[in-house]
Amino acid sequence: MPSARSKGYASEALRGLLLFTRSRGVTCVKGDADHDNIASQHVMMPVGMRPAGQAERVRYFEITWTHTTANTDPRS
Questions:
Q1: What is the C-alpha separation between 65 and 10, in angstroms, rounded?
Q2: Ramachandran area for residue 43 (φ above 0: left; ψ -120 to 50: alpha; else beta)
């Protein structure tokens, strides 16, 4: 929906999902986005996901935690 774009909703949803998975003991989450899907890449990076490689058409991202204690910031 165009009216919801650029308001941070997707980043907030991803942040919540990362907190949920971390609180359940998950230590790594991976994602990907097409090279030309800059919006999706911009959703993953502010919540702490970092580039982890690329293929011909896709860029990969991931976030890894060394401990599984839930926190209010999934980047830590």
A1: 21
A2: alpha
- Which residues, 6+ apart, have CB-to-CB distance to 33 below 8 Å? 40, 41, 44, 58, 59, 61
Question: Does position 4 have pLDDT exceeding 90, yes or no?
Answer: no
More confident residue, 17 or 74: 17
What local confidence, expressed as pLDDT, does residue 66 receive? 84
Q: By C-alpha distance, which of 35, 31, 30 is closest to 56? A: 35
State whether residue 31 is helix, strand or coil.
strand
Q: Is the pTM of this model over 0.70?
A: yes
- 61 contacts 32 by C-beta, under 8 angstroms: yes
